[in-house]
Design goal:
Order of helices and strands: HEEEHEHEEEHEHEHHEHEHHEH
CATH class: Alpha Beta
Helix content: 25-40%
Low-confidence stretches: none
Number of strands: 12
CATH superfamily: Aldolase class I
Strand content: 15-25%
Strand order of the largest sheet: 1-4-5-8-9-10-11-12
Structural class: alpha/beta
Largest sheet: 8 strands, parallel, barrel
Number of helices: 11
Bound molecules: ligand PBG
CATH architecture: Alpha-Beta Barrel
Radius of gyration: 20 Å
Distance between the termini: 38 Å
Length: about 325
């Protein structure tokens, strides 16, 4: 033998020297669920350990995240039923929960990068990401609303908008709208390769945003497809996206890698609610070690090629790093 591979694995110190992938708090995006009211913190039933907060407590939570080294928040709001309609009117309300949240968070934490979710589902009486006509999700009218919604988020102070709707042509429309309104520094993080996944189930619990009829398969991608992801991502880069995303993450590591090899802009991956819930449930049942599972899965997502990871484990992971220092 002239090569003994175990030489590089013989001790923790040697392994640390040759480790190819290391995670740090600035790799993460913290998803935040915000609800109306004050002093409210409600656990999401299907996401043990994860909460919906009223804005005052969401800010406290983000202050803790910031102190742990986390620098990016992705904001989702739970909209009261009486404000939902088919056109997503409330999404454009300058004093809506999203707009108020962005202003308050940027005010409290100016250096926290704030990204907003742009899609109609939390605002839609049908629970769909776009406008519905004759049971169809219509593309171009939806895109027009998403562009106005993005401008409204930019006005409130969002650093990036994150269209998660999967309509065609929305990145270009959003970019043009931002340019036209003078928001030259507002970025776009595009959910470019977003699959029609069962792993979004717990998230829809969190926001009460499950589709009222049908499913999302006419706009989100077929999990069986690979080349389609490359097509989607390349188009969004051409249309002006600053960061593209693959979603889900844990079950789509192959797609993350292929996308990473294809584009020259940062790639993010969304470790989604169902992927979080699986680890929590298995750990609770005593079937696996939670901390080890978190580290292994998040490392795998970064190793696959994700420059940024949106995950409900962001804070827990940052705490783990601090504990192990
Ligand atoms: C809404 C949106 C969804 C998620 C992020 N933005 C749900 C969906 O598309 O139905 C899923 C996030 C998660 O499951 O953690 N457009």
């Amino acid at each position: 033998m002239i090569r003994r591979n175990r030489i590089l694995r013989q001790s923790a110190s040697v392994r640390s020297l040759v480790r190819e992938t290391a995670l740090q708090p600035t790799d993460f995006i913290v998803p935040v669920f915000i609800t109306e009211g004050e002093n409210r913190k409600v656990e999401v039933h299907s996401m043990p350990g994860y909460f919906r907060y009223s804005l005052d407590l969401a800010i406290k939570e983000l202050e803790e995240c910031y102190a742990l080294g986390l620098r990016c928040a992705l904001i989702f709001v739970k909209v009261p039923d009486e404000l939902k309609d088919n056109l997503g009117k409330e999404a454009l309300n300058e004093n809506g929960l999203m707009q108020r949240s962005v202003r308050a968070i940027k005010n409290a934490l100016p250096d926290m990068v704030v990204i907003t979710d742009v899609a109609l589902d939390p605002y839609s009486s049908f629970g769909h990401d776009g406008i519905v006509e004759d049971q169809q999700i219509v593309n171009d009218k939806s895109v027009a609303v998403l562009a106005r919604m993005s401008v409204s988020h930019a006005k409130a102070g969002a650093d990036f908008v994150a269209p998660s709707d999967m309509m065609d042509g929305r990145i270009l429309a959003i970019r043009e709208a931002l340019e036209k309104e003078g928001f030259h520094n507002t970025g776009i993080m595009s959910y470019a390769a977003k699959y029609a996944s069962c792993f979004y189930g717990p998230f829809r619990d969190a926001l009460d945003s499950a589709p009222g009829f049908g499913d999302k398969k006419t706009y989100q991608m077929d999990p069986a497809n690979r080349l389609e992801a490359i097509k989607e991502v390349k188009m969004d880069v051409e249309e002006g996206a600053d960061i593209i995303m693959v979603k889900p993450a844990h079950t789509y590591l192959d797609i993350i890698r292929e996308v990473k090899n294809e584009v020259n802009i940062p790639v993010s991956a969304y470790h989604v609610s169902g992927e979080y819930a699986m680890i929590k449930a298995a750990a609770k049942a005593g079937f696996l070690n939670e901390e080890q599972a978190i580290i292994e899965v998040l490392t795998a997502i970064k190793r696959a090629g994700a420059d940024l990871i949106a995950t409900y484990f962001a804070k827990q992971f940052a705490q783990l790093i601090q504990k192990n220092k």
